[in-house]
Write a structure and sequence with these properties.
CATH superfamily of chain C: Aldolase class I
CATH class of chain C: Alpha Beta
Radius of gyration of chain C: 20 Å
Number of domains of chain C: 1
Structural class of chain C: alpha/beta
Distance between the termini of chain B: 57 Å
Number of helices of chain C: 16
Radius of gyration of chain B: 20 Å
Strand order of the largest sheet of chain C: 1-2-3-4-5-6-7-8
Chains: A mainly beta (70), B alpha/beta (257), C alpha/beta (373)
Structural class of chain B: alpha/beta
Distance between the termini of chain C: 32 Å
Number of domains of chain B: 1
Shape of chain B: globular
Largest sheet of chain C: 8 strands, parallel, barrel
Strand content of chain C: 5-15%
CATH architecture of chain B: Alpha-Beta Barrel
Oligomer: heterotrimer
Strand order of the largest sheet of chain B: 5-4-3-10-9
Order of helices and strands of chain C: HHHHHEHEHEHEHHHEHEHEHEHEH
Number of strands of chain C: 9
Helix content of chain C: 40-55%
Shape of chain C: globular
Number of helices of chain B: 8
Helix content of chain B: 25-40%
CATH topology of chain B: TIM Barrel
Number of strands of chain B: 10
Chain lengths: 70, 257, 373
Amino acid sequence: MKSSTVVWLNGTQVSLDEGQTIASLLLAKKINPASVVVELNTEIVQKETYGTRVLKNSDSVEVLHFVGGG
Amino acid sequence: MDDLLEIGGKKITSRLITGSGKYKDESIIADVVAAAQCDIVTVALRRVDFNRPDDSILRFVPRDKILLPNTSGARTADEAIRLARLSREMGCGDWIKIEVISDQKYLLPDNIETLKATDALVKDGFTVLPYMSPDLSTGRRLVQAGAAAVMPLGAPIGSNRGLKTLELIEIMVDELDIPVIVDAGIGLPSHAAHAMEIGAAAVLLNTAIASSNDPVAMARAFRLAVEAGRLAFCAGPGSVSRTGRPSSPLTGFLEPQ
Amino acid sequence: MPFHDTLSRYSGFDFPEFFSSVTEAQAAAVIDRERLSPLDFLALLSPAAAGLLEPLAHRAAALTKQHFGNVIFMFTPLYLSNFCENRCPYCSFARQHAITRRQLSFDEIESEAVAIASTGMRSILLLTGESRKHAAPEFITKAIGIIRCHFATIGIEMYPMTKEEYLVFVNKGVDGLTMFQETYDEASYHGFHAGGPKDDFFFRLSSPERAGECGIRSLTVGTLLGLAEPRREAFFSGLHAAFLQRTFPAAEVSLSMPRLRPMVGKFVPPHTVDDRLFVQIMCATRLFLPRTGITISTRESRAFRNSIVKLGVTRMSAGVSTAVGGHKENAGSAPQFEIADTRSLTEMKSDLAALGFQPVMHDWNARLLSPVQ
């Protein structure tokens, strides 16, 4: 069985294949990287590193975008 | 027409700033912005809903507008700073509206946390527009901290009650050397015109347009009101006369004896 | 940005053109305005407004009552030294005048202070001529230390000093600076003051700013009416006060408007300010600056002071001698100028009460919140 990585994604626990990067995660979720910002363990992740940043067990990932606001 | 508003190194034509929240159907925003002819639009930052991953508001905001993300959701300066940095990371500019609210009943801002956040974010290179409760002393400190403008509320967010804090806003307009932008509480175009007549640099409103039955028409009404108010301010209103005629003379002693 | 920048902005301003173009109707419209712009103020100072004294006076009286009530703050000057290196032709202390030069000894300072305080006076204004040799900052500092236990508030009216020097005074207990620019017209200024240390227009002009930066509680500025064109002088005085209030929001700003009086040397002022113009200036100032104090000294007669007190005055002096040692000693030294109002504090209090005012000796204890060194 392929081992998996369990991370917190926007407050929910999810199971990912091991070795997933932020880029592959966004791709899997059908998210355009240009329209979001990503925070990993409360640190902002630079867009250039989405492809190389590998997610590890119990990482906390926040994926945010702009919504309507006043 | 040279009456441009200078903020954060930019020269802006429109003195109406619109919000993008509370719409029934966000697709109307593009038309609203066109009717308002605003140059600046506020947005908020939230988690992506993975069931609707394409839901970014940026689809509806024309690309040539200046984006003003707010830190709504923040209850402390630290949270506001964190949201500001995330917003900047989006790559749409470094303007930020600081909104720190720890009062869920009235949604009144926390001036003290707002000042702390302003201080930190100015030092971090942001163009900071703090939303605050009108208070001259806090306003002065925000100016000293390097805010690009101050944004005192007219009335609580969403209340549409107009300029309940008029006197305090007037004082801030008189005493502060940076743009004073009335933000929150404006419900009618006449409120917006009034704010401009007393010398506000601009107004920011969201609910009044979004909750109208015809947001596009209302946006146009607000545009006209802001222009009218600004024109009146620049023209210099005549005096409002006081009733009553003097009773006993005070300068009789000057008459030759 | 110093006040000098504000002043410079008007260097090309065509005052005669403005005065001739403003109408009485325009000036009348200003009287009702809530917030006056500088040019509104200038309209009220114009010859066109001369026929509007009665409505102007009523508005000034109403504003004064609203912001200051029926209260008049009392103070008295104490001249410490009349040695002076300047040659101001309008002042008895000028070096070319053959007067007896006197500087109080520290014992004399103590007895003068006691004599003044025994009349009930609690606010003192210390004055010296301009002589760093005789009335050096160290001498002044020591004098402050001697008198401070006798008075609630201490002001100084002396030669312009550096920020460091003002800081020493503030820490010693001084809470007010009075600095007359004499005239805001640079050319006239140099005409009167050439050859002495006072000739530095800018250094004098910026003194209140240096004192303000030390956190001094009150600042009083003004011109000596008669030295230059009075309407302009009143205008710039008002702008100066407005500038100081904006720059030092925590300070109490006041204006004083002394008119030239007879003195040793028989100086004839180039301009005359008659009573009507004086009232116009005072009332216009009150409308432009509703919360700024206005001080009227004993250069004005008893009758005149009594008449104008409700038109905007907030501070008055009494029991005055402008001679060094004049309180205890009946000096023999020359007064700086002839006083027109010789009322004692007791007489003044009684007159003010009859006019419906409450004289206040003691508004604030400066040393209560900031212990002195």
